[in-house]
Amino acid sequence: MAAEIQEKRVISKEVANAQQEIWKFILGFTPTAVVKCAIELRIPDILENHETPITLADLASEIGCNQSSLYRIMRFLIHYKIFQEKPVSETSVVGYALTPLSRLLTRHGENSMADLVLLESTPVMLAPWQNLSAWVLDNKQLPFDAAHGTDLWGFTAGNPEHSKIFDAGMACDARVGVAAVIAGCPEVFEGLKTMVDVGGGDGTALRLIVEACPWIHGINFDLPHVVAAAPATRGVEHVGGSMFDYVPKADATYFMKVLHDWTDEDCIEILKKCREAIPQDTGKVIIVDNVIGQKEDHEYVGLMIDMVMIAHTTNGKERTLKEWSYLFHEAGFTRYTIKRLQTYHSVMEVYP
């Protein structure tokens, strides 16, 4: 009898824990929505520009909003460690201050991820998630196509405003990724005189690489409408075209989170174009991307991005090392190396 009672208590506790845990999924969108609100209200920037913790009254005055509404927003974000409360000088009055998380949400910070939050929370990027189950059932119409009548690339080409938001979001991840590569394995750029960033967007990644490695002449290669909006950068040449047609010749080609957007067959064709573009004896392809199963501490990021690939791309996916190796072999490359970074990225160097 006592054993039965104990078993029921254990089951009851498990059920109670599950009932609490399920709310993370029922209202899982809430943190993203409230963080987006904070960015749009410029709260991280206001706190960064304030030398001391700022009171609720002063913050509301700076924003031009109601104190009561703002208090509830800040209470929520403090719980999630986006902001923190600190004494104002040596008084008993409490004010708000940044945390390491909210320092990543300032609009113009060196490591800002604010534009990526704003991109992924747009109605355009959220709508495809409603079509996941339909895609799983028939595996025909892709979620993004079902939501918008075209794929992501066609949509951005036809909607300049969203294209601008998309490029800004991609530039966020590029800044973090390039910094990790330069800090973690700068030797990948040694000996290169020219390098093509294939699918380089507005040129953010290549600009940072050339600034750190000024001996490299960079070629930022992307679709014509993308490079047309790219800012002029010293040491970087912008070239418009399609990687399915050709890749400009250089000592090395560079991909940062580009190949994960495409099917195996597409990636093999792109890599073949790269093999034609680089010297067969000294050339290489540098790939900065996620490798599923390589880094346990970042595994959840890779798995979430894999779901993003379903929702937003034309059959893109995150890959295991075995799957990456298959692409390299089928494209005619003979060997590769892989190096892990402190971020979720890995660096693969692929040789003819």
Low-confidence stretches: none
Q: Report the total helices.
A: 18
Q: What number is the mean pLDDT?
A: 89
Strand content: 15-25%
Main sheet overview: 7 strands, mixed
Distance between the termini: 71 Å
Tell me the overall shape: globular
- Order of adjacent strands in the largest pleated sheet: 5-4-3-6-7-11-10
Helix content: 40-55%
Radius of gyration, Cα only, in angstroms?
A: 23 Å
Topology pattern, helix = H, strand = E: HHHHHHEEHHHHHHHEHEHEEHEEHEHEE
Active site: 260
Domain O-methyltransferase C-terminal: 129-333
GO molecular function: O-methyltransferase activity; protein dimerization activity
Protein name: O-methyltransferase
How is this structure best described in words?
The chain has 352 residues and is α/β, with parallel strands linked by helices. The protein is 49% helix and 15% strand. The protein has 18 helices and eleven strands. It has helices at 2-21, 23-26, 30-40, 43-49, 56-63, 67-79, 100-103, 114-120, 123-126, 132-138, 143-148, 152-158, 160-184, 204-212, 224-227, 264-277, 299-312, 321-330; strands spanning 83-87, 94-98, 194-198, 217-222, 236-240, 252-256, 284-289, 291-292, 319-320, 335-340, 346-351. The chain has a seven-stranded mixed β-sheet, sandwiched between helices. Strands 1-2 form a two-stranded antiparallel sheet. A hairpin with a 6-residue loop joins strand 1 and strand 2. Helix 8 (114-120) packs across helix 13 (160-184) and helix 12 (152-158) packs across helix 13. The model has no long low-confidence stretch (mean pLDDT 89). Residues 129-333 form the O-methyltransferase C-terminal domain. InterPro entries: COMT-like, COMT_C, COMT_dimerisation, SAM-dependent_MTases_sf, WH-like_DNA-bd_sf, WH_DNA-bd_sf. Residues 23-106 form the O-methyltransferase dimerisation domain. GO terms for molecular function: O-methyltransferase activity; protein dimerization activity. Keywords: Methyltransferase, S-adenosyl-L-methionine, Transferase.
